[in-house]
Specification:
100 residues; mainly alpha
Length: 100
């Protein structure tokens, strides 16, 4: 492996990390907004508020799923000499948040 190839591979691995971090942050933020809004909602409206914000969570997941299933993602994986299946990335993105 040439030095140039090694550098490019590292750059594309970094791109994959950034895409994952961005997806995880979006999904986590949508879930936190949902929990906060449900907590503040009137008891009679909690279910409707939860459904509305769950749609936001689902939209965040769907938008990132489209990327991880795209040709761009496969190209980045190929250039990084690494392949992580889209369903594995989405399982990690959608994993429950761990409270510290």
């Amino acid at each position: 492996m040439t030095a140039e190839h090694e550098i490019l591979s590292g750059v594309f691995v970094k791109v994959m990390h950034m895409a994952f971090d961005d997806a995880r942050k979006d999904v986590t933020a949508a879930r936190r907004r949902m929990r906060a809004q449900v907590r503040m909602a009137d008891p009679a409206r909690k279910e409707a508020v939860a459904a509305h914000y769950q749609q936001e969570v689902d939209r965040a997941i769907a938008s990132h799923r489209r990327y991880f299933e795209s040709r761009d993602y496969h190209m980045v994986c190929t250039l990084a000499d690494l392949f992580i299946r889209p369903e594995d990335m989405m399982r990690a993105v959608c994993a429950p948040e761990v409270e510290a």
